[in-house]
Amino acid sequence: MSQNRYKLWMGPGTYCVPPELFALNRSRLAERLNSKEIPKKSVVLLQGGNEIPFNDTDTNYLFRQESYFMWTFGVLEEKCFGALDLDTRKSFLFVPRLPESYAVWMGPLYTLDDFKMKYKIDSVHYTDEIAEVLKNHGASVLLTLKGINSDSGSESKEASFTGIESFQVNNALLFPEIADLRTVKTDLELDVIRYVVEVSSAAHRKVMRMARPGKTEYQCESEFLHYCYSVGGCRYVSYTCICGSGPNAAILHYGHPGAPNDRFIQDGDTLLFDMGANYMGFAADITCSFPANGTFTSMQRLIYEAVLKSNLAVMTNGKPGVLWTDMHLLANKVLLQELKNGGLLTGNVDEMVKAGLAAIFQPHGLGHLLGLDVHDVGGYLDNNPPRPKEPRGAEKLRTARVLQKNMVLTIEPGCYFIDPLLDSALADPKLAQFIIKEEIERFRGFGGIRIEDDVVVTENGIENLTKVPRTIQEIEDWISGKDDGKY
Amino acid sequence: MSQNRYKLWMGPGTYCVPPELFALNRSRLAERLNSKEIPKKSVVLLQGGNEIPFNDTDTNYLFRQESYFMWTFGVLEEKCFGALDLDTRKSFLFVPRLPESYAVWMGPLYTLDDFKMKYKIDSVHYTDEIAEVLKNHGASVLLTLKGINSDSGSESKEASFTGIESFQVNNALLFPEIADLRTVKTDLELDVIRYVVEVSSAAHRKVMRMARPGKTEYQCESEFLHYCYSVGGCRYVSYTCICGSGPNAAILHYGHPGAPNDRFIQDGDTLLFDMGANYMGFAADITCSFPANGTFTSMQRLIYEAVLKSNLAVMTNGKPGVLWTDMHLLANKVLLQELKNGGLLTGNVDEMVKAGLAAIFQPHGLGHLLGLDVHDVGGYLDNNPPRPKEPRGAEKLRTARVLQKNMVLTIEPGCYFIDPLLDSALADPKLAQFIIKEEIERFRGFGGIRIEDDVVVTENGIENLTKVPRTIQEIEDWISGKDDGKY
């Protein structure tokens, strides 16, 4: 048993997540749904996640809680259900009834009161009692979750239990409202996100000082993981670490099992490290790009400055009321203008954008919502702007929404030299007309630069939560051992 | 792209797994099946694993290959199939046909020839060609995998593809033979296992020196993970790390999401750290128990010596032809005798065993087969000794087999002070008669000791692959900074 038994906390030095965070989410959800036409005696019912075994074995992947359930109830254990009465706002948690013998293997079992104390849920029962408890409580309609995740195309897991057939079930009302609420963070949520972004920032700074020619990419990944866990109490990362060196920095999803960060870092390499910790479900997602040997070459300088200007343009212009698609377009234009200034491109930048040239250098969207999922939900709900078709590249955006106060997003423009895309551009007269071929050819094998910050939309602008060296001077100083205490 | 493109290798300093290892497994499988009555023109067909997303999101758990497929084909990528013609012994690999656009996100795509070169498979095709290729090859009967994993109770995933209905399928023949073959390791497999056990041993030694009062349990876990990955190239561990301190050392599956290694280590604590790296699928599984402050108390000394004697008794007596259940019984007897010598028990040891007292102190089995799964397969096949019923505790054994040369197992006796078990024993006159109550009560909250080694059965005995300080003197010396270079 740990001294943290009744806390969402990893001990001194780490952040204690208050259960009030989830109570506030429940209250927002009730308020939102009650403002709509919902059936009388409606109760929201969500099902949490289950542990997943490696294939047919008895060994499990390290459990990740389902995010809608986590957002609403803040419960870390598997195989639970949660319910929220929309009239009384009473909350219910249903936990699996474990045999006494589990205590031998899993430690002292939480009683129902333990769960109640830890998670501050009004009423805690066993999952085999759901039907009875909800019936006795007078629940008539269960609002369950059914909707498509617009990033994965997968459907949410709709709650189901023995006896559900004796209730009316409505699975249409809940999804759009809860997904929309998740896009705007409360101050309590922002505090956790600040924490996980700070831990991730510090870990990136540590990695910047240990990464160098002769190390292997995965040693940098390992350093990041170790810092986040041993210092920040973050047992998970939010996604598989991308640690691309040299040409691998142009592989957007590098680090996957078929390319597991296993290259030796060479002198002259650009490093692109995209890594983010996870704390109690909350995700960070940060990319730092820097020279392996600590000093930018003129080529690295050119591309880095271009991407940084693109990033800063969004940082300066983003605010409530602004369309994210416009920010994407702005970032594209700044990038192309800088590549033109640097002698890689020629012609009119607006025409380049119209022709789709931006997607050759940055085939991904500007950034995405961030929260309990690294690609957080609510990007394309029914009443939001639809996925754009123009300019080319914008269709990859994970949201096209109007920015609102307290949305948390990544700003992550990039510039990569990806052979098949360069080949296709050079073979397409509409694009090739803008490209100074011999200059572009010099950058084959260069890899790429991405500068990814985690930000929150404020009343009037954007606050950057990320605390890493960003200008060329800052990066070179940091790697050379200066500026301790600055971040 | 990495310089390891054509190798099962994480770069200099790590172990390069030869594809011949899997070719030899295929050859053993063909030989075994051909020695049975199998239909003519039979082809073994196995399906590899798929990546698993976190719930409905587009973010995946770090992929683990399915172990039967790995054993036979040695292929690390997801969504593959493999086939082995039992007449000609020709091997086939089927890989997913990825769109060209994947190259932008995943890096240069492997061609069929790349796969052929990397994995040394005779013939490589796309998965949409399985039916056609096998048909053209003259396959008549497909031998697919269907069987129950005796540790999880789950069924293996039987291969299935579009067009399988035009073949005769036999799912009865393959499972018992391949599962049985997996229990006996080849020298090529032993070399990988030696490597991953060495890396894990070195990581344990590192942790022994950094763990101390004031650290948190998970910081020890993090140190272990970091060493295994950054030094040994092991991106995975074989199971969730168990880092129990003080009373948590008595929780057999401590470290799970509900008890995530989050306790502060106290002066006087016993630490029980059960952690094992994984390299290219091959598992290590080692437990070290030691005092947090580096010096054994008399109580720790008593229990540690008892468990170590139990471990060494098996190490000395294990050899081909011996029943694993007899080794379990031997370990139990030595442990109870030592507890009796130490003044915790009284009476006749054989009678204690008969009454089931051993399972009060060691409620788990002596150890298990180890290989591509940490609880490796083949423990209870149809022609093996069945799961025992007596003495109490032995029913937890993951195998009751006769030891054979080149079986790899863990030897992991333990002694724990688990309140509900002590309570039940004290309340049961058949058990209570052996217990010196006031002595046992002193050990409440002590936690426990487990000493777990990874061993291989040799011609005449047992070889211990684990390289960690094991005697009390060795442990105290190591923690105090002596004996560098000894292991």
Automatic annotation (TrEMBL), chains A, B:
Stretches assigned to the Aminopeptidase P N-terminal domain: 17-153
Descriptive protein name: Xaa-Pro dipeptidase
Gene designation per UniProt: LOC108737289
Enzyme Commission code(s) on record: 3.4.13.9
PANTHER family xrefs: PEPTIDASE D, PTHR48480
Cofactor: Mn(2+)
Record SMART domains: AMP_N
GO BP term, example: proteolysis
Record-linked InterPro entries: Aminopep_P_N, Creatin/AminoP/Spt16_N, Creatinase/aminopeptidase-like, Pept_M24, Peptidase_M24B_aminopep-P_CS, X-Pro_dipept-like
Subunit structure: Homodimer.
GO molecular-function term, one example from the UniProt record: metalloaminopeptidase activity
Protein family membership: Belongs to the peptidase M24B family. Eukaryotic-type prolidase subfamily.
Gene3D superfamilies per UniProt: Creatinase/methionine aminopeptidase superfamily, Creatinase/prolidase N-terminal domain
Keyword annotations from UniProtKB, A to Z: Dipeptidase, Hydrolase, Manganese, Metal-binding, Metalloprotease, Protease
Catalysed reactions, as listed in the record: Xaa-L-Pro dipeptide + H2O = an L-alpha-amino acid + L-proline
